[in-house]
Amino acid sequence: MLENIIDEKNIEAVKSLLEKSEKCVILTHSRPDGDAMGSSLALAAFLKARGKDVSVVVPNEYPPFLAWLPGIDTVAIYEKSPESVDEILKTADIFFCLD
Asked: Contact at 8 Å (CB) between 43 and 52?
């Protein structure tokens, strides 16, 4: 099944979308766990290294034991600041939903 999703045509389509996008938002599920935060922050680092303006947004707090993750201090938490997160979402060019 993955062979049908990961093919050269789809990879090129994603590359094209990324080239056209400047503001990227990475979202995850409620009560984000280590998998969600780790994958989100890793993608954020990858995109930032390529010159993108990236925001990681979570609906609510992540567990305190994840505070050591690089970049976690930049994560926007909707429950804490809904107005600023709404602005981030309104200005995004592309969204990634990760777990």
From this structure: no
Contact call for residues 40 and 28 (beta carbons, < 8 A): yes
β-sheet bridge partners, residue 54:
24
CA distance 15 to 84: 29
pTM recorded for the entire structure? 0.90
Q: What is the pLDDT along the chain (99 residues), one digit of tens a residue?
A: 556 667 888 889 989 999 999 999 999 999 999 999 999 999 999 999 999 999 999 999 999 999 999 999 999 999 999 999 999 999 999 999 998
Residue 58: closest CA among 85, 38, 84, 34? 85
Q: Bridge partners of 6? A: none
Identify residue 62 by its one-letter amino acid code: Y
Residue type at position 66: L
| Cα–Cα distance measured from residue 46 to residue 40, given in angstroms and rounded to the nearest whole number | 10
Distance, in Å, from the CA atom of 18 to the CA atom of 51, rounded to the nearest integer, reads 11
